[in-house]
Amino acid sequence: MSAVTEIGLTYAGLRRQAEEKATRLKAQAVIRIGSATCGLAAGAAAVKEAFEREISKRRLPVKVLETGCLGHCHAEPLVIISRPGFPGIAYGFVDEDLVELLVKNFLEGDDPCYEYALAALDPNDVFPTFEDFPRGVYEKKIISGESGIIDPKEIEQYLAGGGYGALAEVLARPPQEVIREIKGANLRGRGGAGFPAGVKWELCDRQEERERFIICNGDEGDPGAFMDRSLLESNPHLCIEGMIIGAYAIQARQGYIYIRAEYPLAIERVNVALNQAREKGLLGESILNSGFSFDLEVFQGSGAFVCGESSALVRSMEGERGVPRHRPPRLTESGFRGKPTLLNNVKTFCYVPPIIRHGKDWFKGMGTASSPGTALFSLVGKVAHTGLVEVPMGTTLRELVFEVGGGIPDGKQFKAVQIGGPSGGCLPESALDIPIDYDSLHEAGAIMGSGGLVVMDEDDCMVAVARYFLEFTQQESCGQCTFCRLGTRHMLDLLTAICQGKGDLKSLDTLKD
Prior knowledge:
Blueprint: H1 3-26, E1 29-34, H2 37-42, H3 44-58, E2 62-67, E3 79-82, E4 89-91, H4 96-107, E5 117-120, H5 134-138, H6 155-160, H7 165-170, H8 175-184, H9 197-205, E6 213-218, H10 227-234, H11 236-250, E7 254-260, H12 264-279, E8 295-301, H13 310-317, E9 341-345, H14 346-358, H15 360-364, E10 374-381, E11 387-392, H16 397-404, E12 414-419, E13 425-428, H17 438-443, E14 452-457, H18 462-476, H19 482-499, H20 505-512
Parallel strand pairs: 1-2, 6-7, 6-9, 7-8, 10-14
Antiparallel strand pairs: 1-3, 3-4, 4-5, 10-11, 12-13, 12-14
Helix pairs in contact: 3-4, 8-9, 8-11, 10-11, 10-12, 11-14, 18-19, 19-20
């Protein structure tokens, strides 16, 4: 039996078992409770207990699942109820009173309580789906599509939807061919800089040293940003599959997922996913009987913002102080333990399986010519519908804030949007029609960053906003460079004085200087 056939048969067996389990699940009533950090903070745990209590009291054959974040964080606690004969229905702002009503009227009776519903998941003739609303028209879910739907602690649910199929496909192809596919898709790193991922993979693969490492940067420290955390909490296997594919492409044998310790739920769910992947033969020795061996483990960061920078991250993993180092050499030449190291962001790795599955031309058919694909944003601040949104690159800020986000609440006027984290910039109303991609934002004086987007209204003072972000960067400075160590302190003192009404024109000249 050829290696290609062995890989295919091994994966087909895993997929078949998962599909059989999924079929049994569809044949019964299922309650999915959004239990990512946003849902739990809003009371999802109490909602889950209430459902279990009511179901037990009525002796109903209903399955209760904890899922991740559907993206509509403003409506948490969020629950999806599916039962044969009805479309899946999502309910927002669920409390214990609504739990009792839903169990009694819908699960015990036949009334879906549409008056309390947000939207249906599946097309039907009775109730609109998420795609029927303005947000759904603009959204294009590639890496967030299964978030909030599947149970992140059940690998079979990921497998049933085609998960790890891209891995099975690449294991039957030469590693260089995989690199060419990612390079041809022009996937740009979603960690902030937008460097082409395929080029980075190629540079790492060219090194003569055969011991290589692969690292996923899940440090995510920008205020208001929670995209990586949500992906790891909601669908950890997508990132893991992308990393295994990347490891095969550069022939690495060991990898690490660097997650800040402030993300305990993400750490817990990733570790569960890694153990399940090992049990299924998707990690460890001879993955899918291919002969390729690779393993992954979680490394917990201590929460230093500067460790989001790649060389500082690697230094902290080596037990040294997490400060950036001069380059060259780059990590692809000399990274972790002095070996060639491929380091990408969580979102970047998550795009890899869909690209392999659908092809580079499919990916390039979305977004813009220079920035293909989609972008995942955490939309927060003075906007009606806060949460996670995934839109094609090139979507304008106006569309994102007013159509996807529902506009500014309480009839207030839009003032600005802060994008790109502390190192990014604030864009005023005149910039609302700028398409969101790496090049357009750079020309406007901002950066894409990792995807944090903070909306401000007429009540926000831009001087106070500048002071807030400067205070953050001053506290998080590693202190290695004089300009940053002392300069941010001096600027912060000047802005503090201005906010206290003690500034003068000389202060403005000094700030510009």
